[in-house]
Design goal:
Helix content of chain D: 25-40%
Structural class of chain D: alpha+beta
Oligomer: heterotetramer
Bound molecules: heme-A, dinuclear copper ion, copper (II) ion
Number of domains of chain A: 1
CATH class of chain A: Mainly Alpha
CATH topology of chain A: Four Helix Bundle (Hemerythrin (Met), subunit A)
CATH superfamily of chain A: Cytochrome c oxidase, subunit III, four-helix bundle
Number of helices of chain A: 6
Distance between the termini of chain A: 59 Å
Shape of chain D: elongated
Strand order of the largest sheet of chain D: 3-2-1-5-8
CATH architecture of the largest domain in chain D: Sandwich
Number of domains of chain D: 2
Helix content of chain A: over 70%
Strand content of chain A: under 5%
Order of helices and strands of chain D: HHHHEEEEEEEEHEEHHEEHHH
Structural class of chain A: mainly alpha
Number of strands of chain A: 0
Order of helices and strands of chain A: HHHHHH
Largest interface: B-D, 89 and 91 residues
Number of helices of chain D: 10
CATH class of the largest domain in chain D: Mainly Beta
Radius of gyration of chain D: 27 Å
CATH architecture of chain A: Up-down Bundle
Strand content of chain D: 15-25%
CATH superfamily of the largest domain in chain D: Cupredoxins -  blue copper proteins
């Protein structure tokens, strides 16, 4: 089986993620999926923009009252750094250095977990301090749906990368799993892209009013 | 024959289909279930027409009528037309581009099972307290107001089925981009493959807005959110936009493959290559592109303001241009050809004027200021049945007769085919032509009955009589299918004699690995080119070698079934049923567990060995 | 099918070359990452600086767009060969996304 | 715009098509028999677009028929292979440009009419008392009934819309429960009644046309709104300016029509007990909108229909009160009042039929 052939750094191909037909298909299919995800998130952003600050009773908290930029900044940094670390992981993947790849992936996962923890704390804060919940207003529904969908993506990404790491821990890199790692890292970057818009559109623009 | 396709017995066959990842078998699954839902949707249409045959009729009650109406539209669009199109995509596209299979056979199977479980879920509503009743558009204020679980069935069912369609679309995009046989450049792809490509792209971008819209609906109805609840700050127009941002591309998702089927049939039975191939490709892409910029023509009366209405009106009209290009190219394909009127060709020939009639009423509807009169009247019903039945359904029926030999190796009876064609054609025009006038005379659509004395009686009666003709036509067709399969006379590779594209170069039905050797494509209409040079088969692009095949798997079935189970949990969670949340969780465990299995258990597929393939040669083609 | 895409006959020369190229690319990545962090800082600073809303909103949206382009073209290699189809489909997605957002911020006014 | 339309009116008058079409439908209901400015322009647009479409269809048909008859495969052609033609640039240019031109002809009046119909700027003009200078009617659509409020005149009616002819009437349309759509086919195209906010538009009725149909037009709900959507009809009384003025003052001056017969007085009592919580019986109803949960019955005796659909007879009123569900499934009146005996229903009907403002 070609896909499971053993390699050395020298025989390892330049673009391992696209060296088999399966890999090529997976690579392209995943990019297409990201095209669809773009529209999916755009729809959620659009909904959020239409419903931002729409509350049944004007005494309820608006975006301006809720958000705390320091936390958001911290979360942003965690996610941005995790994007860089996953680039490092792919760098080592291309160099056929499995151990280093795994190490960087682990850091990526840890950063991602940190991000999720911050997000959960943040939500918790809104719910308890401001009674800003999923059901309290259209604003709340739209906010939690958009940010929560992103958070869900982060969580799924963490599970995905972790199980890839565990599953392949013993057998190292080959052409069967290289595309899988590559695609997972694409996914992770995409999550970062979405977050860039979330912190801009939801949080920063929310503070400007 | 290699050992994989043997065993059998009845249960064996069932198991084979439950686990299959072969695009040809998946095509058959789509055909059977899509065909079944077409009969259901048709039955619902007949009930609509019976109820409306005379004024003040009480054949069905008002509430039931709305359920039938909603399920008719939803079933026909999502559970009949879409899967039947996927049937032909699966049956034909890989063969046309000379591929062994699709890019993601597993995902292909998963797409089917998602559609299937979504469809079953939706239709179970009939037995579990009532079907959805807010129209196939399910506008938010009414659908939130609707009691019972009907709308929940709609939202959850479509969500599941829609996920299947989305991954199906991605699968075909990758297949077409990556798996074409050597020599098959983009501009040598058969037009059906081109339309499959553009349709899949439309699916990729049109379904996410529907997904989001349905999520918001599910959250509002089942989890207390306020997206469409005005009192909570929500806005119902959001739903309308999402529905139509999806809904308008959706009608082009349906019609483009229909155009593709006709673009295959017309050249074959005119014995002449498609006129203006490159402009046809261009028009297809342009229709796909414009299709995303016109959705608000369904919302002219919503109150978007004159600027939006004017922009969308003009953008909508623009679609007439690429569509017109196609119409004229089809006619000029026949011009100078040698036209033979087989059953598929009859449908193609009937399609041209019918679709033009439906298309031009579309342009009339695009005149925003006049649409204030047409909107939500029977004029609209007439328009869209002209394009959908006259376009999509004609294409599906044409494709059924045209590709039947390729899918099953037998030939549908031509005499019966023609009888049912004429019945259907006459019935169709009888039913829908007169509805234009009903609309102009002031009859709104979606009314469960009408009062006497408003001038609607005669036209409605005529319309209902037409529907009866269509019913008989369908019965003849079903009989034809059964009759043909029982007789089981096998046919050769190219039973129509004038096949032009690659699928006609291999046996009918093709072996499960398709091409023994990937063919070398030397131009448009690859098979025709070879035939004209007196060859009996395609020139191979590779020596005979081992063929890599994917393994069968039951996991797609379970992934889809898990969501089906979870949907019940989500739905009954509203009624505070104690078992609801556990069921929801169990469902997700089934799905995620199956996905997990899929990703941790390596599946490298298997190989058919060269020697076995050599064996096959001796047996020759099945005929 | 699995081909080892070597361009020169000598695998070890090829190997050295690739190593170097990868390392160089990684350097680019780090630079673009620094740029991204910088842009983020500017965006947050702009909001803290409390300037006019009409300036800040377009400005931070621009910053976000630049950042995303960096992500796509550097981290996700979108400019590399073999990314033609991904580019086309991603931009089509962006086009639909843009239309959707434009609609929802203009003609839903209630 | 106007000029253009008038020219078209001439052309359309002689168009055979128009003759064919205007034979269709009832004059009080059909879009093909326009009785107002808006409906007329819309009709002109229909005729224009239909003519263009007929041109398209005829051209397509001619080429199509020729292709089919000349090039069918005849006996002995079995072996013949026609010449394989790739395309023809000249032809392709022709069938790209001609449709574009046809569409331009259609697009210009479309855009202009769209803006014309949306022009409600006159509505914003108020006099010094804060009243609109033009006649404004607030239309509120409810599950299966319509309320018409004349905010500047202090009048509220239900089911029957009364408007003056030969004058632009401005409407503010909204819904109180689910989405409906306000449509009077022979007077002008529809506009949706949304739950989210108010839609504005105007209509104008032609007096001669109104007289032709006894001043009475049909209106319909044109958006699926539940089981009885198909029965959510209303009537439009289009009165000439003088009659309208009389109607307004009658409505403003009436206090509450008092029953005259004993039976009716009996009915009034029952009404006060069972029905008044929802139905008002004076045209001035100071309750807030949300409290006005049922049709105003002040002019019930003058209605042309019961509940918008039944002929206006006492028998039908009785039938309605006994079992509204049988006539309008899903309506909001069913089950809202206790059981009533036949006598009580009879008394109620007597009382209701006597509720008149004009004689
Ligand atoms: C397969 C499905 C299909 C197709 C192909 C079309 C094609 C078109 N449709 Fe249709 N449409 C529907 C399915 C479809 N539609 C459905 C289901 C609804 C109702 C949904 C609901 O409310 O439930 C609907 C409703 C609908 C409306 C909303 C009406 C309303 O609710 O008020 C409008 C308005 O603009 C419209 C327009 C068009 C146009 C302009 C085209 C164009 O694409 C047509 C183009 C074709 C031609 C024009 C003919 C060929 C061209 C020539 C021969 C060239 C020369 C022509 C000219 C110069 C005119 N459609
Ligand atoms: C692909 C789409 C599609 C197709 C093919 C059809 C096909 C037909 N439709 Fe349509 N229809 C819609 C999509 C479609 N429809 C949509 C989207 C709506 C709008 C819904 C809404 O407003 O929300 C609609 C609405 C609609 C209405 C308007 C109802 C209303 O507004 O109140 C009417 C009325 O005449 C109608 C009639 C028909 C008829 C007679 C057919 C015929 O062509 C059907 C022909 C088929 C048959 C006659 C099969 C009969 C089957 C048998 C005889 C065998 C039965 C046996 C077994 C099951 C064992 N349809
Ligand atoms: Cu109100 Cu339909
Ligand atoms: Cu449309």
């Amino acid at each position: 089986m070609h896909a499971e052939e053993k390699f050395t750094p020298k025989t390892w191909p330049a673009a391992p993620e696209k060296s088999t037909l399966e890999g090529k298909n997976k690579f392209l299919g995943f990019w297409l999926f990201l095209g669809g995800e773009t529209v999916l998130f755009a729809s959620l952003f659009a909904t959020y923009l239409a419903l931002k600050d729409r509350v049944p009773d004007q005494s309820m908290a608006h975006a301006k009252d809720l958000f705390e930029l320091p936390t958001v900044f911290l979360a942003t940094m965690l996610l941005l750094f995790s994007s860089l670390t996953s680039v490092y992981a792919m760098y080592h993947m291309k160099n056929y250095n499995f151990k280093k790849m795994q190490a960087w992936l682990l850091i990526t996962v840890l950063l991602g977990v940190g991000f999720l923890v911050l997000e959960i704390q943040e939500f918790n804060h809104y719910v308890h301090e401001f009674h800003h919940t999923f059901t309290s207003s259209a604003f709340g529904s739209a906010f939690y749906t958009l940010v929560g969908f992103h958070g869900g993506h982060v969580a799924f990404g963490l599970l995905w990368i972790t199980s890839l790491m565990l599953r392949n821990a013993k057998r190292g890199l080959n052409l069967y799993n290289a595309p899988k790692f590559y695609v997972a890292s694409l996914y992770w970057h995409f999550i970062d892209v979405v977050w860039v818009f979330i912190f801009t559109v939801v949080y920063l623009m929310g503070m400007v009013g | 024959m290699s050992s994989y396709a043997q065993k059998k017995g009845f249960l064996g066959t069932i198991w084979d289909y439950l686990t299959t990842v072969d695009h040809k078998k998946i095509a058959i699954l789509y055909l059977i279930s899509g065909g079944f839902f077409f009969l259901i949707g048709g039955l619902e249409a007949l009930m609509i027409r019976i109820q409306l045959a005379v004024p003040n009729n009480d054949f069905v009650s008002a509430g039931l009528y709305n359920e039938i109406l909603t399920m008719h539209g939803t079933t026909m669009i999502f559970l009949a037309a879409m899967p039947l199109i996927f049937c032909f995509l699966n049956a034909v596209v890989p063969l046309q581009i000379g591929a062994r299979d699709v890019a993601f056979p597993f995902v292909n199977a998963l797409g089917f099972w998602l559609f299937f479980f979504g469809g079953v879920f939706l239709n179970l509503s009939w037995f579990l307290g009532g079907a959805p009743d807010a129209g196939w558009t399910s506008y938010a204020s009414l659908s939130l107001h609707s009691p019972g679980h009907g709308i929940d069935f709609y939202a959850l069912g479509l969500q599941i089925a829609g996920a299947g369609t989305l991954i199906g679309g991605i699968n075909f995009l990758v297949t077409i981009i990556n798996m074409r046989a050597p020599g098959m450049t983009y501009m040598r792809m058969p037009l059906f493959t081109w339309t499959a490509f553009v349709t899949s792209a439309l699916i990729l971008f049109a379904f996410p807005p529907l997904t989001v819209g349905l999520f918001l609906m599910i959250f509002d109805r089942m989890f207390g959110s306020n997206f469409f609840v005005v009192a909570g700050g929500g806005n119902t127009i959001i739903w309308e936009h999402f529905f139509w941002i999806f809904g308008h591309p959706e009608v082009y998702i349906l019609i483009l493959p229909a155009f593709g089927i006709f673009s295959e049939i017309l050249p074959v039975f005119s014995r002449k290559r498609l006129f203006g191939y490159s402009s046809m490709v261009f028009a297809t892409v342009l229709i796909g592109f414009l299709g995303f910029m016109v959705w608000a023509h369904h919302m002219f009366t919503t109150g978007l303001g004159p600027i939006a209405n004017a922009i969308f009106a003009v953008a909508t009209m623009a679609i007439a241009v690429p569509t017109g290009i196609k119409i004229f190219n089809w006619i000029f394909t026949m011009w100078g050809g040698s036209v033979k009127f087989t059953t598929p060709m009859l449908y193609a020939v009937a399609f041209i004027p019918t679709f033009v009639a439906g298309g031009v009423t579309g342009i009339m509807l695009a005149v925003a200021a006049a649409d204030y009169q047409y909107h939500d009247s029977y004029f609209v019903v007439a328009h869209f049945h002209y394009v959908i039945v006259g376009g999509v359904v004609f294409a599906l029926l044409a494709g059924l007769h045209f590709y039947w030999p390729k899918m099953f190796g037998t030939m549908l009876n031509e005499a019966m085919g023609k009888i049912s064609f004429w019945l259907f054609l006459i019935g169709f025009h009888l039913t829908f032509f007169i509805q234009h006038f009903l609309g102009l005379m002031g009859m709104p659509r979606r009314v469960w009955t009408y009062l006497p004395g408003q001038g609607f009686e005669t036209a409605n009666l005529i319309s209902s009589i037409g529907a009866a003709f269509m019913g008989i036509a369908v019965i003849v067709m079903v009989y034809n299918v059964i009759h043909t399969q029982v007789r089981g006379v096998k046919v050769s590779n190219d039973p129509w004699g004038d096949g032009r594209t690659l699928e006609w170069a291999i046996s009918s039905p093709p072996p499960f690995y398709n091409f023994k050797q990937t063919p070398l494509v030397r131009g448009l209409d690859a098979w025709w080119l070879e035939k004209m040079e007196g060859k009996k088969e395609m020139t191979p692009a590779e020596p005979v070698g081992d063929i890599h095949m994917p393994n069968n798997s039951i996991l797609p079935f379970f992934i889809a079934m898990g969501l089906f189970v979870a949907a019940f949990g989500a739905m009954y969670h509203v009624d505070d049923k104690p078992w609801a949340i556990p069921v929801l969780i169990i469902g997700f465990i089934i799905t995620l567990g199956s996905m997990f299995l899929r990703s941790v258990v390596d599946d490298h597929g298997h190989h058919i060995h060269k020697e076995d393939l050599m064996d096959d040669k001796d047996k020759g083609v099945k005929a | 099918m699995a081909n080892h895409q070597s361009n020169s006959g000598n695998p070890s020369v090829d190997y050295e070359y690739r190593r170097k190229k990868n390392a160089e690319e990684m350097k680019h990545h780090v630079v673009s990452f620094a740029l991204m962090i910088f842009l983020t800082l500017v965006a947050f600073a702009a909001v803290y600086a409390d300037m006019s809303k009409w300036f800040i909103v377009p400005f931070i949206l621009l910053l976000a767009a630049v950042q995303v382009i960096l992500q796509l073209y550097y981290f996700m290699h979108m400019s590399h060969k073999g990314h033609e189809s991904p580019q086309m489909f991603l931009f089509s997605g962006v086009f639909v996304a843009f239309l959707t957002i434009l609609t929802f911020s203009t003609i839903i006014w209630w | 715009m106007k000029h253009w339309l008038q020219k078209w009116r001439l052309v359309s008058a002689i168009a055979v098509l128009a003759l064919v079409l205007s034979g269709c439908g009832e004059p009080y209901l059909s879009t093909l028999d326009p009785a107002g400015t808006v409906a007329q322009s819309q009709y002109d647009l229909m005729i224009l677009s239909t003519l263009i479409m007929v041109v398209v269809i005829v051209v397509v048909f001619i080429i199509y028929i020729i292709a089919l008859t000349r090039f069918r495969r005849r006996k002995g052609d079995d072996k013949k292979i026609p010449k394989q033609i790739e395309g023809n640039h000249k032809l392709e240019i022709i069938w790209t440009t001609i449709p574009i031109l046809l569409l331009l002809i259609l697009a210009v009046p479309t855009v202009s009419a769209t803006f014309h119909f949306a022009d409600t700027s006159a509505m914003e003009k108020k006099d010094k008392d804060g009243k609109h200078k033009e006649l404004v009617v607030n239309v509120r659509a409810n599950l299966y009934w319509w309320e018409f409020e004349y905010p500047d005149l202090g009048i509220i009616t239900s089911q029957d819309l009364v408007i003056p002819t030969d004058q632009k009437v401005y409407f503010q349309v909204k819904a109180s429960d689910v989405k409906h759509s306000f449509w009077i086919p022979s007077i002008g195209g529809k506009i949706d009644a949304n739950v989210d906010g108010v839609n504005k538009f105007w209509l104008e009725v032609d007096n001669d046309k109104a007289e032709n149909v006894g001043n009475l037009f049909y209106g319909k709900c044109a958006e699926l709104c539940g089981p009885s959507h198909g029965l959510m009809d209303f009537k439009v009384k289009a009165l000439n300016q003088d009659d309208f003025k009389t109607w307004v003052s009658d409505m403003q001056n009436v206090k509450e029509s008092q029953p005259t017969t004993a039976l009716a007085q009996e009915g009034q009592k029952i009404f006060q007990k069972n029905c008044i919580s929802c139905h008002a019986v004076t045209p001035q109803d100071s309750r807030p909108e949300t409290a006005r949960s049922a049709p105003n019955l002040a002019t019930f005796g003058e209605r042309t229909r019961v509940a918008g659909i039944l002929d206006h007879t006492k028998e039908n009123v009785k039938k309605w009160i006994k079992d509204p569900e049988a006539y309008k499934p899903g309506n909001k009146m069913t089950g809202a009042y206790g059981d009533l005996s036949d006598d009580q229903v009879n008394a109620l009907a007597e009382y209701l039929m006597g509720l008149k403002v004009q004689d």
